[in-house]
Specification:
The chain has 464 residues and is of the alpha/beta class. Helices cover 47% and strands 13% of the residues. Strands 2-1-3-4-5 form a 5-stranded parallel sheet, sandwiched between helices. A 5-stranded parallel sheet has the order 7-10-13-6-14. A hairpin with an 8-residue loop joins strand 11 and strand 12. It is elongated, with a radius of gyration of 29 Å. It starts with 7 loop residues before the first strand and ends in an 8-residue tail after the last helix. Bound molecules: adenosine-5'-triphosphate (ATP) and magnesium ion. Adenosine-5'-triphosphate (ATP) binds next to helix 7 and helix 15. The site of magnesium ion (MG) has 3 residues, from helix 7.
Length: 464
């Protein structure tokens, strides 16, 4: 890896004037530009300089663009190649695309046209590289558990999950709404030796109070009107596996006593029966309430709290692990629109990075889904984000206000530029001028970052 982080652009044409023009446009985009006057010379360049994007003339002596194209694809499968042609015919275009060209451009072209093409190619190269980078970072651990994140806090959680996967110890998962409590509970169950046994989730908050007991422990025939035959409860269904008691803090006090007895004695008594049934289940409970405070106020049984709380997993809120936001956004983009390689604009990413996320990962997933549904392009833009998130730009949760006219959620282009400038500035300061990291955090390529730093006059741009 060289120190030069710019996109590497190779222009192949036998006409010097065309090469010169393309070099100028490439340079204006912040690319590292190289030229070759023939396909043969270009092949040598491919070997030594591995360009990211290539623009080749169709009609060249000895080797045509269409002959050259497959050679590039063979040597540098990740490079994007476009063809320039003076005689645009549908057949040539189709043939070029079939051979794996990114696009083609017809001579004579306007500088703007060329610029746009090169920018699109850069974007494509960037997306592929970024996805690759993200996939490598997400790695095997995520594949196993579905838990995305590289922050120290979430890595701690993953380590705990791995340690608990085969244990019979009760686990209490505490965390705000949407932090992934159920995801983590499932990961603990499905990763280990319990995987082939039942996993039964019980939402203690939504059970009908009068029915909770019979739901959990089952009932005998004739126990109440309508009980025409006896039925197993959720505990019996989970036998041998895991019972996930979600929102345990919502369990009514009188049932808490019964629950405690079940956990201690490992047996349940179906409603209307005087026989107890043995059950062997691993209990994972979850809560978004502070159960310690609740038992101190007399709203939760202290003995049950200590019974459940043998091991507690505290899930961090999203604002405590903002460094995972970028990864999560891409994870959900991939999940919601697989294969579409949707990107995200720097301004939208910056907005997401500074937002407070009261609904945590679930809120982020919903925001991405909404944006993908509403947005028409292949880039998630600032305007596709929910209004509440855009408003947060006017009143950021953290310290200094952003330079934004505080009127409404409608943002003009000049506002966008201002937002972009301020956010790049902030991120740049945060990472102490580390361009690589700044680019990653902002979700933009090194070339784009260089261009924007230059444009907004941010930092010291050395040798770019
Ligand atoms: N670290 C993560 N990586 C990937 N996806 C996540 C992560 N955390 C949460 N999610 C996703 O976010 C959504 C909400 O997660 P989950 O239902 O587990 O949260 P919860 O804490 O149980 O929320 P609630 O308290 O509202 O029930 C799910 O779609 C889940 O897959
Ligand atoms: Mg939940």
């Amino acid at each position: 890896m060289t120190d030069d982080l710019r996109v590497r652009f190779l222009i192949v044409d036998d006409h010097q004037s065309i090469r010169k023009l393309c070099m100028q446009v490439g340079q204006s985009l912040g690319f590292h530009c190289m030229e070759a006057e023939s396909a043969e010379a270009a092949l040598t360049c491919l070997e030594t300089d591995s360009p990211d994007i290539v623009l080749a003339d169709l009609m060249m002596p000895r080797m045509t663009g269409l002959e050259f194209l497959p050679r590039v694809k063979e040597m540098l499968p990740r490079a994007e190649v476009s063809i320039m042609t003076g005689h645009a015919s549908i057949e040539t275009a189709v043939q070029a695309m079939r051979l794996g060209a990114y696009d083609y451009i017809t001579k004579p072209f306007r500088v703007e046209e060329l610029k746009l093409l090169l920018q699109r190619m850069e974007e494509k190269v960037r997306l592929v590289a970024e996805n690759q980078f993200l996939r490598e970072r997400v790695g095997a651990e995520t594949e196993l558990s579905g838990i995305v994140g590289t922050s120290a806090r979430i890595q701690d959680v993953m380590r705990m999950v791995a340690r608990l996967q085969d244990a019979h110890t009760p686990v209490l998962i505490a965390g705000e709404s949407g932090t992934g409590k159920e995801l983590v509970a499932r990961a603990i169950h499905f990763r280990g030796t319990f995987a082939k046994r039942p996993f039964v989730a019980v939402d203690c908050g939504s059970l009908v109070p009068t029915l909770i007991e019979s739901e959990l422990f089952g009932y005998e025939k004739g126990a109440f009107t309508g009980a025409v035959k006896s039925k197993d409860g959720l505990f019996q269904s989970a036998n041998g596996g895991t019972i996930f008691l979600d929102e345990i803090g919502e369990l009514p006090l009188e049932l808490q006593a019964k629950m405690l007895r079940v956990l201690q004695e490992k047996e349940v008594r179906p409603v209307g029966s005087n026989q107890k049934v043995k059950v062997n289940v691993r209990v994972i409970a979850a809560t978004n309430r502070d159960l310690e405070a609740a038992y101190k106020k007399g709203e939760f049984r202290k003995d049950l709290y200590f019974r459940l709380n043998v091991v507690t997993l505290h899930l961090p809120s999203l604002r405590e692990r903002r460094s995972d936001i970028h990864l999560l956004v891409h994870h959900f983009l991939d999940k919601i629109a697989p294969g579409r390689a949707i990107g995200i604009s720097p301004a939208a990413m910056a907005c997401m990075l500074q937002y407070d996320w009261p609904g945590n990962v679930r809120e982020l997933e919903n925001a991405v889904e909404r944006a993908v549904t509403l947005g028409s392009q292949n880039t998630l833009e600032l305007r596709d984000l929910p209004p509440a998130m855009l408003r947060s730009l006017e009143y950021p949760a953290e310290s200094e206000p952003l330079l934004m006219p505080s009127k409404s959620a409608l943002v003009s282009d000049t506002d966008l530029e201002e937002i972009e400038k301020v956010t790049i500035q902030r991120v740049f300061e945060q990472v102490r001028g580390d361009k690589m990291l700044a680019g990653k955090m902002l979700g933009i390529s090194r070339a784009t970052l260089y261009r924007k730093l230059k444009r907004y006059n941010i930092g010291m741009v050395r040798g770019a």
